[in-house]
Each structure stands twice: as C-alpha cells, then as structure tokens.
TrEMBL record:
Its main location: membrane. GO terms for cellular component: plasma membrane. This is Membrane protein. Residues 473-496 are annotated as: Disordered. It comes from the Bacteria. It comes from Streptomyces mashuensis. Belongs to the glycosyltransferase 87 family. Keywords: Cell membrane, Membrane, Transferase, Transmembrane, Transmembrane helix.
Length: 496
C-alpha cells in the first residue's frame, strides 16, 4: 500500500487563506520542520478527536431537552432548538414494550397512526440494538433519556468513522476532513435522527473505492442503502465515470456487490407467507409506502410553494421525480462532456444534493448526507462555511417555526413568512455550493484538489485512467496521457 510522508501532505493553512487565518488562534500554520518530526498526533488521529469533541458539544446543546424539554411540553424542545426523534420514537414505535420492528404492529395509542416502523431495515436494527442496551428499570422518561444517550454513543462512533474515512480517502489531503469534524451543522443535527449510520457506511464505501476495492465499496453501498435510500444514488456517478474511462467491469462488480448486500439484509424481512402464498411484508414495505404517500413537508421548496399558494401539491411526487430525472441527465451529460473527467466526489455531491433539493422534504439532518461529500468535492473553507451558515440558520428557523405553530395564541417563535425565508436561504446555500462544484468541473484548473497534478484521489481504478468515451469532442482532445505521466492541470506540464 502506498504511503504518503508528512512533508508531502497538502496543508490547508498554506493553500487556503481562511484556514491560514483561522490557524492563528492556535499559533499559526504548522511549519515544515514540525511536520518532519515524529509525533503521535497524526492528522487522522487529530481529526477523529476533533470530530468526537464537536459531537460532544452537539450533545451538550441538547442538554435542555435531555433534562426536561422532551417531556414537559411541545414547545420547550423547539424554543431551545434541541429536538430529537430518538427519545420520542422509543415509546412511539414500541421499543419500550419489546415490539420487534417490521414484524409487530404498533398500537395506535403509541404511534399516532403509524402501524409499522417507517425506517429501512439496517436503521431499524440500529434502533433495536440501542433498545436492547437500554436498561429496563425506572420511569419511561428515564428510559427515554437512556435510550437517547445510548444512541448518541453509537452515533458518536459513526461520526468518528466518517471523519477517519474522509481523512484517508484523499491520501495527500487528510486535513480536508477537518471540514467534517468542525462543521457546525454536523454537530447540531447529529442526534436528531439515525442518519449518521448510513453516512458512515457511505464514507467507508467511498474510502474502499478510492483504494480500488470495487467489491468492498459495492457491499458498503448496499448496506448503506439498506439503512437510508440515498447512498444508492452513488452508483449513478460511478456508472458515467466508468463509462467515460472504459472501466465498466469495475462498475458492474460494484453494482452487483451492492445489490447482493442489499438483498442479503432485506430478503429475510421482505416476504411473508400465508394460505394465499408469498406476499410483500407490510412492515418491511412501510418505509417505501410512507416515502411515497407523505405530503410535502418541512424544508422543501414544495412547502414554500404550497404555503404561498394554498395548493397542497398532491402531484409533488411526479414533479420531484421529473426534476430528479432531468437533473440526473444533466449531471450525466456534464460528466461525459467536461474538459476533464470529473472526480467521483464531485459527481456524488451533485447527485445527492439534487435529490435533496427536489425532494418533498429537506429535514435539517439531511445536511449530514452532504457534509462529507462537500469536504471531498470542494475543500475550500470560505465556501464551506458560507453553506454551513445557511444550514445553521435553517436549523434555528425550523425549530422556531414549530414553536410558533405549537404555542397557540402566544405565537412564540418564527411566523410562516420567516420560516419560508429560512428555507429559501438554505436551499440557495446548497445551490451555491453546487454551482461552485460545477464550475470546478468545467474549469479543472480551478479545482483545488487538482492543483498538485492529481487526477482523482478518490477515483480508485479511475485515477489517471485515459478517457475512452467523451461527448462532443474528438478522443485525442480529451484523453489523459497513455504513458503513465500526470498532467499539471491548467499549466500543460507533466510530471512522473
């Protein structure tokens, strides 16, 4: 396995003015002599500890709810911006009563009409493991607190895995993972739901792909898709990139491994048998039917349109699907016609961002899906922090809006107009980062990752591969060198 010496690592404090300015709080940029010294404080270890520290701060931010806010009233958890699904679903989905997800029907007195757990199978397993670890004694409130705390500990491990995987995906740029570790929206939303589990599996899949381990990457993508649907979208970018590079065999291996892993996890719960034969188990299908049937919801552009026009937008599924297909075709055309083959992380970020932007719901924790991809796609501190500021604004906006709607005549919080503005700001923040990634694809010399002559550090078998299929140009104009040298993008020079 190739190794990279400390003095070969790309340092953000040298190439990024914002990172350099921020480092003055800790004594300024690290010098070359310090880098050459032997130290336990390797970049990966530092980043993992920072990620754990920020996660712990996010847990502290939930302290008002942990003490009383989840239990004393609907608005307290909103006015303190410390809401979490985790304690509410411990009782609301029957975990406190020992109900088995997907098999046991949830009493209506607990679920508010949700007959079965509305999460994919691996997330349900994650929730069930935490429930088994939760002590059975004491009041329901004490058990809900313990359940949240146990989940938080498991999700903290996921956060550390994400930080380490991102740090190791780009061998020469481990410090880019500090964007993940220090992301404020990451810390604030980490324990709202169970998304970090799927994000950790996705980050591990991208690490495996960067190491040219296509089958392992596929297995992890399949497992991640069994925890949350969005990781399956990564197969789209891999398809067009492998098509352009003539490496379809690698893609087919990854796709087959992903499908196999997903089936292994889902098949045991997918079917039930009775006198009429085999049927899809309704408990297993609940996640998919719920996603299809739910109305437009918080954070989405569709909610703004619905609230402004009074139209419930019953056809939002159709609109979102059409926009997703059109956007995916656009991303595919961009990937096949760009001056240089885009990096995997760039296309992965664009396709997941597209899915979130056109979706019927854009929950605050969905930012967790994008943070690791953004750090790999465009590791520029100024742009990343602009986007994070928009997400933090929305994080506060949604809770204050729910406080306003739940406080009766007091109207304590943010009215609908203010919430709609917060939605628009956080959508524009995501679009801003998407626009910069697209610009980097169209102008490869602007891509900070490629300044050192790299092709695609997260590309695995695609890194340095010549282009075979390119739209709109002769092959000779777009192919990478066949002699194993690398192009210093933007200068035309080569280096061995």
């Amino acid at each position: 396995m190739r190794s990279v010496r400390d003095d070969q690592l790309v340092r953000p404090t040298v190439e990024d003015e914002v990172a350099a300015a921020g480092s003055e709080l800790f004594g300024g940029p690290v010098g070359r002599r310090a880098l050459l010294g032997v130290s336990w404080w390797t970049p990966v270890r530092v980043i993992a500890l920072v990620a754990i520290g920020m996660f712990a701060l996010g847990m502290v931010q939930k302290l008002p709810c942990y003490d009383h806010g989840w239990f004393l009233g609907a608005t307290t958890q909103y006015t303190h911006a410390c809401y979490s699904d985790i304690p509410h679903l411990y009782n609301g989905r029957g975990f406190d009563q020992g109900l088995i997800p997907y098999l046991d029907r949830i009493p209506q007195t607990l679920s508010g009409g949700m007959e079965y757990l509305e999460y994919p199978v691996l997330t349900g397993l994650f929730m069930e493991v935490a429930a088994l670890l939760t002590p059975g004694g004491g009041t329901l409130q004490h058990r809900e607190q313990a359940y949240w705390f146990i989940n938080a500990g498991m999700l903290m491990a996921c956060a550390a895995v994400i930080a380490v995987c991102v740090a190791r995906t780009h061998r020469r740029r481990p410090w880019d993972a500090l964007l993940v570790a220090l992301a404020p929206a990451f810390a604030l939303t980490a324990t709202i739901n169970w998304d970090l589990f799927a994000v950790a599996l996705t980050a591990a899949a991208m690490l495996m792909w960067s190491r040219s381990r296509a089958v392992a990457a596929g297995v992890l993508i399949g497992l991640a898709a069994a925890a949350k649907l969005y990781p399956a979208l990564l197969l789209g970018p891999l398809l067009v990139l492998c098509l352009r590079a003539g490496r379809l065999r690698a893609f087919l291996g990854t796709a087959a491994a992903a499908a196999g892993a997903w089936l292994v996890v889902n098949l045991p719960l997918m079917f039930t048998h009775d006198a009429g034969g085999f049927h899809i188990r309704p408990g297993w299908a609940k996640f998919y039917t719920f996603s299809q049937e739910r109305p437009v919801d918080f954070g989405s552009v569709w909610l703004v349109v619905s609230q402004r026009t009074g139209d419930p937008l019953d056809d939002a599924n159709t609109y979102a699907t059409l926009l997703m297909l059109l956007g995916a075709l656009g991303i595919g055309a961009l990937a096949l016609s760009a001056p240089r083959r885009p990096r995997f992380a760039q296309l992965a970020f664009l396709v997941v961002a597209l899915f979130i932007l056109v979706n019927k719901v854009y929950s605050p924790q969905y930012v967790l899906w994008l943070v690791p991809l953004a750090a790999l796609a465009r590791p520029k501190w100024r742009d990343f922090l602009v986007w994070q500021a928009c997400e933090v604004l929305y994080f506060l906006g949604i809770w204050f809006y729910l406080a306003y709607t739940g406080s009766g005549d007091k109207h304590q919080g943010l009215p609908a107009e203010g919430y709609q503005l917060a939605i628009v700001v956080h959508l524009l923040g995501t679009l801003y980062l998407c626009a910069l990634v697209v610009r980097d694809i169209l102008l490869p010399e602007r891509d900070v990752v490629r300044r050192d002559g790299s092709d695609d550090p997260s590309g695995g078998v695609l890194d340095g591969a010549p282009d075979i299929f390119v739209l709109g140009a002769d092959r000779e104009e777009r192919t990478a060198p066949e002699d194993g040298t690398r192009v210093q993008w933007g200068t035309g020079s080569r280096r061995p």
